[in-house]
Amino acid sequence: MACKSMTGFGRGEVASGGRVWMAEVRCVNNRYLDLKIKMPQGYAVLEERVRKKVSGFHQRGRVDLLLAVGGDFSDLVKMQVNLELVRTYKFAMAQIAQELGVEAATDSASVAFVASRSEVLVQEQQNEDIEAAWLFLEQALDQALVECETMRQQEGAALVRDLSARLQVFAQTIEKIEVAIPELLRQREQVLGERLQKLLGNVQLDQQRLCQEVAILADKTDVTEEIVRLQSHIGQFQSFLTEKEAVGRKLDFLLQEFLREVNTIASKINDAAVAYLTVELKSELEKMREQIQNIE
Fold it and tell me: Do 117 and 211 reside in the same domain of the chain?
């Protein structure tokens, strides 16, 4: 699929063993690739793998990636009983009972009391098997990236359709200018002849001099080179729209060349009708430029 948008969203989720791994990717347009990753605690070692995988899908744009894991982590929690401390509590409680002249308590309340004491039950957090976790996190990440890619391709296709339609309008307007040039030159020649005749009165016009003046005028208003270059740019633009690699920068640069030629045409031809057409051309170029900002 050619011409992907830089705007998209994707989400992936994988569940296994009571845990759920989740990945969300959001992207918007940006001149370069700006990747921000939020990883679960303890998963930092996987960041380089994540970056490499995301870079395979995104060449430009601001990409925000959220990776998370939740669920049952009881298998990572180990409880250790400090038996030495329990014996210390037992001996102390027996001494207290003897001092008070009562029987030492041995019921469940006493057990609960001892168990609630600090450091009697020691919780140990085991390290998660990151390689095993990566198998599931990678699946969630792949799901999110593929879903985002699909959205970007769909929007990219819509952008291509819009740009193609605008390019066609642009090309048609260029054709109108090209067709109008010969008649414009003929009118200029006629006006020039009439003005000279009026200024010189009954003096016979030097046809050779008149032809020279017309030639100079024609040269000053000749926009053949600009039109040829614009037609070449139009062909390049259409070709770029079908490429599978990132073409946003190419298209943006080409539009600058479009504008350069249009400005030259507008400065060379001092005619109201042509001026109106060049304004239309600039309007289309501005709309195309705005669309291109979203193409990767």
Answer: no
Query: Which pLDDT score is estimated for 92?
Result: 81
Phi-psi region of 265 (alpha: psi -120 to 50; beta: other; left: phi over 0): alpha
Helix, strand, or coil (residue 35): strand
Cα–Cα distances (Å) from 175 to 133, 146, 148, 252, 265, in that order, read 62, 43, 40, 23, 13
C-alpha dihedral sign at 87, 90, 92, 94: negative
Provide the whole-model pTM.
0.72
Tally the domains of the chain. 3
> Which parts of the chain have pLDDT scores under 50?
none
Q: Please give the residue range of the domain that contains residue 99.
A: 75-125
Write the secondary structure of 261-294 as one string of H (helix), E (strand) and C (coil): HHHHHHHHCCCHHHHHHHHHHHHHHHHHHHHHCC
74-118 pLDDT, tens digit each: 665 577 788 888 888 888 878 877 777 766 655 666 777 777 777
